[in-house]
Amino acid sequence: MLSMLPKQRERAPQIPEFVHKEVLSNGLRVLVHEMPWAQSVSARFLVKAGPRYEDEVTTGSAHYLEHMFFEGSQKYPSRRELDRAVESRGGDHSAYTDKEYVMYQAKLPTESADFASEFVRELVFNPVMAEEAVEREKGVISAELRRSIDTPAQHRWNLLRQHVWSGHPLGHNTLGTFDSIERISRQDLLGYHTRFYRPNNAILVVVGNITTPRAIDLVARDFGSLTASGDQLPSIPAPIQSVDSRVLVEERDIKQAHLLLAFATDGHGESSPVLPQIQVLSRMLRNNIFHKFVYDLGFSYSAGCYPWLVSDSGNMVITVEVAPENTDQAVTRMVQEVNSLKVDEESVQEAKAGVVSDTILNLADTDVYAHFIGKQELYTGAVKSPEQVRADIQSVSVEDIQKTKRTLLTRNNAAMVVLGPVPQGKAKELDDMLVFA
Fold first, then answer.
1. Is the pLDDT confidence value at 4 over 50?
2. Which among 66, 131, 173, 389 is least surrounded, fewest beta carbons within 10 Å?
3. Which residues, 6+ apart, have CB-to-CB distance to 80 below 8 Å?
4. Do 102 and 135 reside in the same domain of the chain?
């Protein structure tokens, strides 16, 4: 029966060899990667509807809407029935709201592969959104927000967003605020769903033990009848790092001081051709910071450096957790590690090996592979194979890293967040320590 469906899609060239891409006539991008040895099939739906596209009134809507989808659909009208539909088939499902997109996923054993696409379609496009469920979820999301504020390892990142991207939608907490959560109505959520949840604003990735023709037929069956919208979606400019004071201190009575030292990437993000250089330089700093603070000084249990990026901007962020009395020394040491970073063939090769490992080591899992494919398509409109990604990383030279270091690791690009039992008045003193060669 599936093979007899009308050919309502436009075939696109296969790009690249290891993934098949088609665009349905309604604009939905479909990517399929076959893993015939796998025991599962994953369907991962990504929609450009994250906090980047919110404003002061709608802040928190993308995440709120994600919650509501799990309150029931037309076919499975309760949370329990939704869960049972997947779990009774031996599968799992999940979702998350990122800064620029929202992801919905179902992973099923191979014998139930047909259901993965069907379930995602039902979850995302047929929500009940009952009024009483909307009101009840306010308490759940408010509890999640309280937990994030009470958890320093989460709250410090929200402080950083507010600090470096103040005035931009990406500077808002993904969860919203207590006021915005209370203010958002069912009608607001339905409006957000209508505006952003459209096939021509989304990507569906199918990965696992399934043939490409079968996967395409299933997706056409489940998503082909959806209607594209011609309405223009908002174009949000890149966030520009702009801080009134370089150092933000939030004094809190906790046992550790959490330090985040961020270097703006000058408008380069996930879609930038210099992404591999940023990844390698971050890994070099991560290696040095971890060994210095954990093994050499014994200051920290957790320390490192990570790219923290959106499509067109971001930061390289050094993270350190220390006893409050070690705050000054920690900042001094962080600055020293940045300034003394040794860029030579050996250190660059070591970092490149680490980036390759982080990127492709776990690709045997169908869901991880679906993420690998979907994220590339979302940010660049194309997909590279693991071998191509590895080659891009390996092509980074010592000279590339030296140039990236000189360009990005500067005082003008730097900002810092400190969370812990540190007086707010100390911000100026810490700012004066941020001197980079």
1. no
2. 131
3. none
4. yes
Q: Of the residues 172, 207, 223, which one is the last residue of a structural domain?
A: 223
Report the SS3 class of residue 434. coil
Distance CA 238, CA 168 (A): 9
Which H or E run includes 9?
strand 9-11
Residue 390 structural domain:
247-433
pLDDT at 14: 40
pLDDT, residue 12, reads 42
Q: What is the pLDDT of residue 233?
A: 83
* Beta strand 313-322 pairing with 247-251: unpaired
What CA–CA distance (Å, rounded) separates 344 from 401? 9
Does 230 reside within a domain? no
Q: What is the CATH number of the domain that holds 62?
A: 3.30.830.10
Which two structure tokens, joined as six digits, stand for 11?
């075939």
192-225 pLDDT per residue, tens: 999 999 999 999 999 999 999 999 999 999 999 9
Count of the separate structural domains present in the chain:
2
Same-domain status, 213 and 329: no
- Phi and psi of 394, rounded to 5°? -65, -25
Rounded mean pLDDT of 41-48?
Answer: 98
Q: Is residue 264 part of a domain?
A: yes
The pLDDT tens digits for 373-412 are 999 999 999 999 999 999 999 999 999 999 999 999 999 9
Q: In sequence order, what E strands does 167-288 have?
A: 202-208, 247-251, 257-264
How far, in Å, CA of 386 to CA of 356, rounded? 9
Distance in angstroms (rounded) separating the CA atoms of residues 194 and 357: 40
Contact assessment for residue 233 and residue 52, using Cβ atoms and an 8 Å cutoff: no
pTM exceeding the 0.85 threshold for the entire prediction: yes
Q: What does the pLDDT look like over 11-20, one tens digit per residue?
A: 344 434 689 9
Q: Same domain, yes or no, for 213 and 253? A: no
Going by their DSSP bridges, the two strands 29-34 and 202-208 should be labelled as parallel
pLDDT score for 17: 63
